[in-house]
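WARN retry 2 of 3 for item q-0093 after timeout on previous attempt; input resubmitted unchanged.
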Amino acid sequence: MNKNRNNQLSAGETSIFCSQVALIVKAGIPLYDGMGTLVDSCENDDAKEAFKKISDKVVETGSLYMAVKEVGFFPEYMVGMIKIGEETGNLDDVLSSLSVYYEREEKIKNSIKSAVTYPLLLVAMMAAVILMLVVKVLPVFEGIYESLGTEVSETGKFFMAFGKVFGYGTLICVMLIVVALIVAFVIYLVSGGKVLKNIIFKLPVLKKLNDKITSGRFASVMSMMLGSGYSIEKAIEIAPEIVTDEDAKKKIEKFGQLISEGKSFPEALMEINMFTGLQNRMINVAFKAGQLDSVMNKLSVAYEDEIDDAIDKLVSFIEPTLVAIISIIIGGILISVMLPLASILSSI
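OK item q-0093 returned
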């Protein structure tokens, strides 16, 4: 178990932790005993240190939520969900679902890495090839042409100039891509990923995905809280803690304010545009029938399926897009080399 530069565990390690603690809770073992067992069974020094801190806090506070919040290397969403799990008495189910959630997140990250790594390596190689051709190869051809002692035709001059401009232009585009990636990586390291995520999720396609994630999380929290007998007001009080997007937090806070002003649950939801029109009608019917927690659970499951499909489509779109960009770069290389060469050969 290794903490990254931002002092957080990876999604895969978070999934393993949640799975192990879920087993402890389901087995009826007291958390302080279970965490002590995990500490003793750890061979990795970093993992042992992490579990030891959590174990000490569990013994001190009697709360897993307080422990994971205090140590500070777990995602905000996980910490908020554990709090809800403790308050509703569904900690084992929450931990199990968190384990599945972060396991899926790890698989998605690996899929994106595999889809992006190979094309990016090709882009880097193409940049090196373009630089070599433009700086070294083309001047050699020009020297050979001049050594022949013939006059360069106007067409030949045009092709050679165009080839150079196209080659340098392609090289500049590639370098800009590389610089943009480096800047994004630096922003990620400095801000812990928050600033970069905020920028990325402002893009239209990813904003829709982020809205679905937010709506799904909100529905999941409301389902658990209401199903455990908590009031709507109490559920709304906790809901903002599991949302990392600032716009979504403002929406939920506005939702709570509307409820306190006397609006009904369905009316307040419609006003903040958290769900679609059809979903709002379902919630309205469920609210009147006293089945709000059940409908919220169904919406949560439906959003999980939609999010999985959207992410799969996004990942499958990345690789062909990068391949298309690389094809354009390769075309630039061929044009920058072949046009001057064709001009030279036609003049001999």
